């Protein structure tokens, strides 16, 4: 697997790319793309890195797995390309934004506009076999993305980490709460959104914090 990733990220990640686990992961991913239908398209695996250089990261939103249906995943957690219907979790995210800060429902679910403002949309696992949720879990991606979280934690200050659901909330132990703001809520999935994601007000809280630190807020 040729690592096509923003130059800005290559230096802090250089040691990670040289670790044995990553070499094994790269071999696995290369085999999967050669022998199965895998999402997202290979050139979009590191999309969140390409749109959001390390020095630009203001907010981290952590997902778990890429979407495994055709045409959905494009390397940004929770995001889908224009023309693809809103998945249920993303629809709940948009409902919460509308309720929280009054932003109207956007015409599509493409969150590239967030990424370009400094919202780092990271999935814990960056690839998945078509129609097989979780098929690339426990192959090394989680080790890689934990390293990424720790790089953001150590290299940046005043980043807002939005941790939705039990899986994402475990990552709080990698984050220095004295340097950063950690926001926790249930997952926006329809199975759990009504247990506290809807009404969490994370988007207004994030912007208030950023403004207090003299950082340009996000236009959600």
Summarize the biggest pleated sheet. 4 strands, parallel
Q: Radius of gyration in whole Å, from Cα?
A: 17 Å
Low-confidence segments, given as residue ranges, are none
Oligomeric state of the chains in view: single chain
Q: What gap, in angstroms, lies between the N and C termini?
A: 34 Å
Compute the number of strand runs.
6
> Helical amount among residues, as a percent range?
25-40%
Structural summary, described in words:
With 220 residues, this protein is α/β, with parallel strands linked by helices. The protein contains eight helices and six strands, in the order ααβαβααββαβαβα. The strands form two sheets. Strands 3-2-5-6 form a four-stranded parallel sheet. It has a two-stranded antiparallel ribbon with strand order 1-4. α7 links the parallel β5 and β6 (181-185). It is globular, with a radius of gyration of 17 Å. The N and C termini lie far apart (34 Å). The mean pLDDT is 96.
């Amino acid at each position: 697997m040729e690592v096509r990733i923003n130059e800005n990220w290559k230096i802090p990640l250089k040691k990670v790319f040289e670790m044995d686990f990553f070499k094994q992961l790269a071999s696995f991913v290369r085999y999967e793309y050669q022998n199965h239908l895998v999402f997202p398209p290979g050139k979009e695996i590191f999309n969140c890195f390409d749109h959001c250089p390390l020095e630009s990261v203001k907010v981290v939103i952590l997902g778990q797995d890429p979407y495994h249906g055709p045409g959905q995943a494009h390397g940004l957690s929770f995001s889908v390309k224009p023309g693809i219907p809103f998945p249920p979790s993303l629809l709940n995210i948009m409902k919460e934004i509308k309720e929280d800060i009054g932003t109207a429902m956007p015409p599509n679910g493409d969150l590239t506009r967030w990424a370009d403002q400094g919202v780092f949309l990271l999935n814990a696992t960056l690839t998945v076999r078509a129609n097989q949720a979780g098929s690339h879990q426990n192959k090394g991606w989680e080790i890689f993305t934990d390293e990424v979280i720790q790089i953001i934690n150590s290299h940046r200050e005043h980043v807002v980490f939005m941790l939705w659901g039990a899986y994402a909330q475990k990552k709080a132990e990698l984050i220095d709460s004295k340097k950063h703001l950690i926001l926790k809520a249930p997952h926006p999935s329809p199975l759990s959104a009504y247990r506290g994601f809807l009404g969490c007000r994370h988007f207004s809280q994030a912007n208030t914090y950023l403004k207090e630190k003299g950082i340009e807020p996000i236009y959600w």
